[in-house]
Amino acid sequence: MSSTELPPVPATNVLPKVSPVRGEDGERLRSVRLSGVTLAVRSRPSGREGLPPALYVHGLGGSSQNWSALMPLLDGLVDGEAVDLPGFGDSPPPDDGDYSVTGHARAVIRYLDAAERGPVHLFGNSLGGAVATRVAAVRPDLVRTLSLVSPALPEVFVQRGAIPTGLLAVPGVASLFTRYTKDWTAEQRVRGVMALCYGDPGRVTPEGFRNAVEEMERRLRLPYFWDAMARSARGIVNAYTLGGQHGLWRQAERVLAPTLLVYGGRDQLVSFRTARRAARSFRDSRLLTLPDAGHVAMMEYPDQVAAAFRQLLEATGESGIADTGS
């Protein structure tokens, strides 16, 4: 069986544990033990009973908190949860050390199978967009709609800002970078990340910056932080080079779910030029372009992303839930 095939895995030993959450008011964080992996899952109180489920998947180096600006705006539309991928946020590394796109996709599938929440409205950003694309392609029964924000899909000419990610995938580079940057403060690192990921870093509030610094300080203390980053970066590079029916663009063509694509005109990591190719590849797609947004439009322009998702629901006739927020 190909390494990209994701057979259903019986998910047992689901042990939810509620713990204090660092993030927006009303959010909860619980730990869910599955076969071979433990995932931290962030959720909010449902706006009302009977809402369809949604799952949000973050990008490389991110966490479930990346969706904390968007999730409240969709409270009346979906029953939302955001997952920390293995090795990121509050999720420990996977037992098998598999940080490939397929490995992350398998973790998402295991959770959805265990929670019996499918089909869900599936959201993904960057690496999470590649993961969500693979999930939607191989397990269409789990995906109701697909919303991708700057998905990490293969490019012939990569953005200059994405070159460090590619270098990080080279064995030994992560350890060299760690030594080179050992004197950098958490504030310096966060400013660098925000300059790379935001179209306008000035949109970050002082509170948001402080929270990001605290989170960076916490992650740098984790013994597996750089390993998770390097191996996941390697997973993206490997996915970019995979051809045939298991290539990400070929899998995009197999996605049956109605798809919302969101691209930022100031994205330094995923080329704005790929937006048109993505719109052609996903068979039932809608494209939202935000000229001033960077790589994380759901954090910079959550209102516009929420409005586009509402339009997706209206266009696809998803019961009448879109009317609840109008």
UniProtKB/TrEMBL annotation:
Pfam families listed in its UniProt record: Abhydrolase_6
Any one of the GO BP annotations: acylglycerol catabolic process
Family annotation (SUPFAM superfamilies): alpha/beta-Hydrolases
GO molecular function, one term: monoacylglycerol lipase activity
Organism listed in the record: Streptomyces colonosanans
Gene Ontology cellular component annotations, sorted alphabetically: membrane
Top-level division of the source organism's lineage: Bacteria
InterPro entries (alphabetical): AB_hydrolase_1, AB_hydrolase_fold, AB_hydrolase_sf
The AB hydrolase-1 domain, residue ranges: 55-308
Region: Disordered, residue numbers: 1-26
Protein name, entry field: Alpha/beta hydrolase
Keywords assigned by UniProt, alphabetized: Hydrolase
